[in-house]
């Protein structure tokens, strides 16, 4: 796909990988993109603004004012771009972006930008694996930024490990894919449930489960990046996600989740139920904290509605996708769920597989459809989400 008419702003930070940015600018220009560059003061020690200016055919900015004391307008830059790519993104700039600092032109541009932002980190392996860097990158992802993960290999320090900036060709492909995908689900409404439900016992206690919401939030992000209008009905989780195409509706219990799904189901085109919904809830919620007076405490539980099954009965044009979390006879149980709940796809994950299910960044799934079973290898939840979105596009 040509990038003709696409406006790409590159923010270059002071890391050795900055020497690869001229190659990236060249690639983008060869593919007809318009490119502008903003740099930090330390970046110009690594790569000359003149080189980047010649290649991008535009003035490179790195100070708040130019030689004539005219303001370099970061607001205009941020509004101009279709995409802002920060590469290489150093630990310092990542931290500053995560905390909202605005003491150089690149950072003020980041804060002003309304377009999607891509971040390609590059640093030494210990800096990359440091908890503060990890947390800052997580934060940037939660703000809705796209992280182009560093790769493993030989680093400038001579050490070998993760921290190398992704190669310019791969960064180029990520940007190209972003523009290609952006419209695939335009005009489609996708309803997603995520996370656990909490079923109240008394004012201080509930029962729940280990779901973190990672799987559902990953699907929401990929769906939104593909242009869908997403309603994410989320149980209590610690995740945050900001995206102009995503509306998050927070709920606590299975009954609340059911109400929200019911309210939004008829108008959606696709519903994806990743939530780990409690099958039962206490029949009575104690008005006061239950005191530990007796040796035995009996709680009477009653059944919650099966949201997926109810929507299976009600569906008309919708594509209905459920998950199955199994601990034994996985495929057989998933096939039963497919039929019983009238779903078009059951995404099966099993707690028997390492790295799959609750809380991991990864998942290993099988797609169970009336046509058969398709196996996928263990991969990042964001990649599982891409497979699900591809399924939707092929089957809608
Ligand atoms: O959130 P993470 O930490 O990333 O973990 C992801 C996950 C393990 C929660 C997710 O991948 C997953 O498997 N979700 C479904 C968990 C589950 O409850 O599975 P189940 O086999 O009990 O339910 C089958 C399907 O029916 C699910 O789509 C579920 O959302 C739905 N269901 C279940 C019960 C109920 N009362 N209402 C429902 O809609």
TrEMBL record:
Pathway: Cofactor biosynthesis; coenzyme A biosynthesis; CoA from (R)-pantothenate: step 2/5; Cofactor biosynthesis; coenzyme A biosynthesis; CoA from (R)-pantothenate: step 3/5
Enzyme Commission (EC) number: 4.1.1.36, 6.3.2.5
GO-annotated biological processes: coenzyme A biosynthetic process; pantothenate catabolic process
UniProt xrefs under InterPro entries: CoaB-like_sf, CoaBC, DNA/pantothenate-metab_flavo_C, Flavin_trans-like, Flavoprotein
Region (Phosphopantothenoylcysteine decarboxylase) location: 1-189
Similarity remark: In the C-terminal section; belongs to the PPC synthetase family.
Listed name of the protein: Coenzyme A biosynthesis bifunctional protein CoaBC
């Amino acid at each position: 796909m040509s990038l003709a008419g696409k406006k790409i702003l590159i923010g270059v930070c002071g890391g050795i990988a900055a020497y690869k940015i001229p190659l990236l600018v060249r690639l983008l220009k060869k593919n007809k993109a318009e490119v502008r560059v903003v740099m930090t003061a330390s970046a110009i020690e690594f790569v000359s603004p003149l080189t980047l200016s010649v290649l991008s055919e535009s003035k490179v900015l790195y100070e708040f004012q130019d030689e004539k004391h005219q303001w370099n307008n970061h607001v205009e830059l941020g509004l101009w771009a279709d995409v802002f790519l920060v590469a290489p993104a150093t630990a310092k700039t990542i931290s500053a972006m995560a905390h909202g600092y605005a003491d150089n032109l690149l950072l003020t541009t980041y804060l002003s930008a309304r377009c999607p932002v891509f971040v390609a980190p590059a640093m030494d392996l210990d800096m990359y694996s440091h908890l503060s860097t990890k947390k800052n990158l997580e934060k940037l992802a939660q703000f809705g930024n796209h992280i182009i993960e560093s790769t493993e290999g030989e680093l400038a320090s001579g050490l070998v490990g993760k921290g190398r900036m992704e190669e310019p060709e791969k960064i180029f492909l990520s940007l190209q894919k972003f523009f290609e995908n952006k419209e695939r689900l335009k005009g489609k409404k996708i309803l997603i449930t995520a996370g656990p439900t909490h079923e109240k016992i008394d004012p201080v206690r509930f029962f729940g489960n280990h779901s973190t919401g990672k799987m559902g939030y990953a699907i929401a992000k990929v769906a939104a990046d593909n242009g869908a209008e997403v309603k994410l009905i989320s149980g209590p989780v610690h995740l945050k996600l900001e995206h102009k195409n995503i509306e998050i509706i927070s709920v606590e219990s299975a009954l609340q989740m059911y109400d929200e799904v019911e309210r939004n189901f008829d108008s959606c085109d696709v519903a994806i139920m990743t939530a780990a919904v409690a099958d039962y809830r206490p029949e009575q919620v104690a008005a006061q904290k239950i005191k530990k007076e007796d040796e035995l405490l009996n709680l009477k539980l009653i059944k919650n509605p099966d949201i997926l099954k109810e929507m299976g009965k009600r569906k008309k044009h919708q594509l209905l996708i459920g998950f199955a979390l199994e601990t034994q006879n996985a495929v057989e149980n998933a096939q039963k769920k497919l039929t019983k709940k009238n779903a078009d796809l059951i995404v099966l994950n099993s707690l028997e597989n390492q790295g799959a299910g609750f809380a991991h960044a990864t998942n290993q799934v099988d797609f169970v459809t009336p046509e058969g079973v398709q196996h996928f290898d263990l991969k990042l939840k964001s990649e599982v989400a891409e497979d699900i979105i591809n399924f939707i596009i092929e089957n809608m």
